[in-house]
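Worked example 2:
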Amino acid sequence: MLRIGICDDVYDARLVLRSALERVLEARHVQGQFWEFSSGEGLLRWLESHVGELDIVFLDMEMGELDGMETARRFRATDPNTLLVLITTEASYAVEGYEVEAAGFLVKESGTLKQHFDALMARLEHKIQEDIVLELPGSLAGIPVPASALLYAEVLNHVMKLCLKSGSYMVRMSLKELISLLPQDGRFFECHRGIVVNLDAVVSLDSQVATLSDGSTLPVSRRRRAELERAFAARSISKIRRELS
């Protein structure tokens, strides 16, 4: 489920964008839930009690009393994580967009909205997957745990140890259950029986050990070593390409 906000003071513009979003999401077999706002003020009032509840906000730059850029500044001061996409009639907002860490721009041009949107969604899909929240049981139930925060997971005596950037936690779940919750983007790999590692957290590999960014080390199965090296190389190349795009 992708939670999407659309902020534009023109009803027809919101309708056109929502329809385009629904078509592209359907083609990607992704469900969408939408919130619409007719002003920047309305979006910011809603945000006061709903921080972090949207994945992406599409924000029109040319609105009434409170324009899109000022809305974006105030939004970002309250919510540092939600992806912001700026909607504009010209590309000159690109420079200002860096100030609010805009994830992308959607330029209004008659007849080309779909092409712009398709290209934008292709870029955003990676960022959306990076921030996917894991729905974990036990002591972590109801606590937002982004997949990017998980360094590795290990089965110990029928209990799962989750090593996060914030510390380690024990939860009652199987490795199969955990894997079903993880994003299938090549980021996670079972390096040894009962151990899944986040390849983005790996800083070095040798014949028997994977060293992680927090200094911890994990054993590497001889049977899985070659496949792990290929997966690590593919993930590293993918990250470089995304950073350059």
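The chain has two domains: 2-130, 133-244. The mean pLDDT is 82.
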